[in-house]
Design brief:
The protein is of the alpha+beta class. It has 14 helices and 43 strands. Strand 18 and strand 19 form a beta hairpin. Helix 8 runs parallel beside helix 9. The protein starts with a helix and ends with a strand. The structure holds beta-D-galactopyranose. GO terms for molecular function: beta-galactosidase activity.
Length: 824
């Protein structure tokens, strides 16, 4: 072979390798195409910083087993660039490792760079230093902002390109997103909004990543950018261009939780209904937001007032365990949708309107056809007659018939087990209920007594000037008052207008009082009687934030801290005299001495200076420390914070997030089970009223060592740590459900089924743990059938048929069901 032949061979090989390894992602007005083939893509959001690298493979594997094709994540700018041009991609911020884990598990990925992300994440993902850049205006046509946005977006794209992670390079990423729901706020930015949005599109396209870019909730998105839908339902959505396929970037699987708010959940039936309807109506890409919500560790929770848990009632719960029956009911749906992928993406569509919100959609490809029968009526079940056969379609449900003859799935009929999770005490501790505590006060003398700060100004400054390095910001001033001052009376009070979000006030070293925003209203008025000494008085106000605003037009400009006015009010009979302190000389200090002194780490200088005597209870601003043994086994670990007020917690220096069990969730939960029928929104199905908003906090196993571990608390309000304890969480009982002629499958996930508490084949009703027999029942003893088939095994499968359970005398039109409650 001569040298030119060799060179030819070399280049053909090179070309060939590049060719086979790349995945071509295109689309038409009907579907996303992978290597030229139309596809349906089922995707789920998992945000890497809301779990730990150790959890990632398991979460992604479970997502794959759950029938997903892709994992979506946002990219969190403020986490990666906490200070300007200082980057962090370590630990749970290791984006590349996360993407490679997705690739290793054989899934696609959707990269929503934003870099504004919303996501109930602090400040919507913007670093607060951005706000402090001179001349900046955020999310509009402003060159300072656009330069920063471009800098970060390019950095991420370059990192990803370098690792060949875009599908065009053979990697897993099939779609990328720029901005986030800008269409919801664009009008409030006037013409500049439109200029900015087009700039975003051009900037993104110029990065040349070889896969499609999307914008969500952005009707003006210019081609070739695809605009996509977010919401609880997107079946009625049409993209803004006939070349764009119908895509749903956020199917909200539940909702987030706020301090003081109720705990929203969304039924499996309604979620499956929304998905089935979307594909009935020509959808091609659907992403669950969230598939795994996880935890807002550290100070990442957005706000104001987003809780540390970001469970979201997602198919995988906060700890990464299956949220059944949601997970299983969707898994079944995914399998069926994939099985008819060809027909529903290539087939001809026809539909039959049966009236009263009942209609059939038929996809026909050559001699195969697949049908969806949808009933969007909220109360009335329907009978659909198709090709001479009658089909019952319950209200608010979709039936899928892959061959247009047999119903293999109905969104309202759950044939998946439900798990009831239980908490177990930490068996690694001899006396788990009584951890031994040491403590130390938060040293506040220099601030509270002396008023010593780091900087001063003759105005009240917004807490965002601190670049949000801490929740805590001290405002200090001295007030000189003589007895002959016109304001001086026995009835003086201090009045503070605050916004964000907690205030603790001190005068002359004495604690005066606290106040915090009530749920949903984030500014407050603090007014309290105050006693001044004649002469100089030291006034110290500590402001604490609980997550900066993450959504809304110009949310970045919302006041944070104590915008004032701050006034002294003197009352003399009917006369009211006001002294405004807002223009006083204020001295400022950021953060907590305890954190400066690294109290949260066992090996630092102040590690030994803790007291074990006279443990204070309900004492404002106290540090507590204890050691504990990691619970045995593999089950997820939580720490019960019952009895505490509000503060921050660390295990071995890893932040668990903010805790606030003393904040009781508002009232208004219904005692009736939630009816899945009818449009869902986050106020529809709620629980946890009147309970601590969040009592249990996730302690990822990777935060713990096998021997002794250290828990440190900064208790801001004052609380009682003696009830704090570590527990594990696992399914305690599982309930199987199968409609007639389906298999009832039951699993204790590797543990043994020890007992059967309930079994019935007939028309029994109720929820797991409280089933009740109905009016008809099969003749054989269902309990002993199930006991024989299941007890002593890790899992079992029993067909729900009359041949197994005997005949039933249920009347016409009754959907017979096998219901079982088992103990794990
Ligand atoms: C959307 C937003 C998401 C998330 C969601 C609510 O509007 O795009 O980031 O905030 O709402 O969970």
């Amino acid at each position: 072979m001569n040298s030119s032949n060799l060179i030819f061979l070399y280049f053909s090989l090179l070309f060939f390798t590049a060719f086979i390894s790349a995945t071509e992602v295109t689309h038409d007005g009907t579907a996303i195409k992978i290597n030229g083939e139309r596809k349906i893509i089922l995707s789920g959001s998992i945000h890497y910083p809301r779990s730990t690298p150790k959890m990632w493979p398991d979460l992604i594997r479970k997502a794959k087993e759950g029938g997903l094709d892709a994992i979506e994540t946002y990219v969190f700018w403020n986490a990666h660039e906490p200070l300007r041009r200082q980057y962090d991609f370590t630990g749970n911020l290791d984006l590349i490792r996360f993407l490679k884990t997705i690739q290793d598990e054989g899934l696609y990925s959707v990269l929503r760079i934003g870099p504004y992300v919303c996501a109930e994440w602090n400040y919507g993902g913007f670093p607060v230093w951005l706000h402090n850049q001179p001349g900046i205006e955020i999310r509009t046509a402003n060159s300072v902002y656009m330069d920063e946005m471009q800098n970060f977006t390019t950095l991420i794209v370059d990192m990803v390109k370098q690792e060949k992670l875009f599908a065009s390079q053979g990697g897993p990423i099939i779609l990328a997103q720029i901005e986030n729901e800008y269409g919801n706020v664009i009008s409030s930015y006037g013409d500049a909004g439109k200029v900015y949005m087009n700039w975003c599109a051009n900037m993104a396209e110029s990065l040349d990543i070889g896969i499609p870019w999307i914008m969500c909730q952005e009707n003006d998105a210019p081609q070739p950018i695809i605009n996509t839908c977010n919401g609880w339902y997107c079946d009625q959505f049409t993209p803004n261009n006939e070349n764009s396929p119908k895509m749903w970037t956020e199917n909200w699987t539940g909702w987030f939780k706020s301090w003081g708010g109720k705990d929203p959940f969304r039924t499996a039936e309604d979620l499956a209904f929304a998905v089935a309807r979307f594909f009935q109506n020509g959808g091609t890409f659907q992403n669950y937001y969230m598939y795994h919500g996880g935890t807002n560790f550290g100070r990442t929770a957005g706000g104001p007032y987003i809780t540390t848990s970001y469970d979201y009632d997602a198919p995988l719960n906060e700890f990464g365990s299956l949220n059944q029956p949601k997970y299983g009911h969707l898994k079944e749906l995914h399998g069926i949708l994939h099985s008819i992928e060809k027909t529903i993406t290539y087939g001809n569509i026809s539909s039959i309107d049966f009236g009263n919100s009942v209609y059939a959609t038929i996809y026909q490809l050559n001699d195969t056809s697949s049908c969806f029968f949808g009933n969007t009526n909220t109360t009335t079940d329907a009978t659909v007659t198709y090709q001479g056969v009658d089909y019952n379609v319950p209200a608010w449900s979709v039936s899928i018939l892959p061959d247009c003859k047999n119903v293999v799935y109905n969104t309202a009929k759950v044939n998946t087990q439900t798990d009831v999770m239980v908490k177990k005490i930490n068996e690694a501790e001899d006396e788990p209920a009584s951890l031994k505590w040491t403590w130390r006060p938060q040293v506040i003398d220099d601030t509270v007594v002396l008023g010593k700060g780091q900087v001063s100004a003759s105005q009240l400054i917004d807490q965002k000037v601190t670049n949000d390095v801490s929740d805590y910001f001290w405002y200090m001033t001295s007030v000189n008052l003589d007895k002959d001052d016109p304001i001086w009376t026995d009835e003086m009070s201090l009045r503070v207008n605050g916004t964000g979000h907690i205030l603790h006030a001190f005068v002359n070293g004495e604690y005066l009082g606290s106040q915090w925003a009530s749920y949903g209203i984030f500014n407050y008025l603090f007014e309290k009687k105050i006693k001044f000494n004649p002469g100089n008085n030291q006034l110290t106000l500590l402001s604490a934030t609980i997550g900066l605003q993450n959504y809304g037009a110009r949310f970045d400009l919302i006041d944070t801290g104590l915008p004032g006015p701050i006034e002294i009010i003197g009352k003399k009979g009917d006369e009211i005299i006001i002294k405004d302190l807002s223009k006083h000389k204020w001295s400022y200090k950021v953060g907590l001495n305890g954190l400066d002194n690294e109290l949260i780490y066992a090996d630092k200088k102040f590690a030994s200076q803790w007291q074990s005597e006279n443990l204070p209870i309900n004492k404002l601003m106290t540090w507590y420390k204890t050691t504990f043994k990691a619970p045995l086994g593999e089950d997820p670990v939580v720490v019960d914070m019952q009895g505490l007020g509000k503060g921050l917690a660390w295990v071995n220096g890893n932040s668990l997030g903010r805790y606030w069990p003393s904040f009781i969730a508002e009232d208004g939960c219904s005692t009736e089970p939630c009816d899945y029928r009818g449009s869902y929104d986050n106020s529809k199905c709620v629980k946890n009223c009147g309970q601590p908003t969040q009592r249990w906090y996730h302690v990822p196993r990777s935060f713990m060592k096998e021997d002794d571990n250290e828990l440190v608390l900064f208790e801001e309000f004052g609380g009682n740590p003696t009830l704090v304890n570590f527990q594990t969480i696992r399914p305690g009982s599982v309930c199987g459900s199968a409609y007639e002629n389906r298999d009832m499958e039951l699993s204790c996930y590797g543990r043994v089924i020890s007992d059967i508490k309930f079994a019935s084949f007939g028309d029994s009703q109720g929820t797991c743990g409280s089933f009740e027999k109905g009016s008809c029942e099969a003749t054989n003893d269902a309990l002993s059938v199930i006991q024989n088939a299941c007890v002593g095994k890790e899992s079992c499968t029993v067909p729900a048929t009359e041949s197994v359970f005997g005949s039933t005398n249920c009347g016409e039109g009754v959907s017979k069901r096998l219901l079982v409650e088992a103990v794990c």
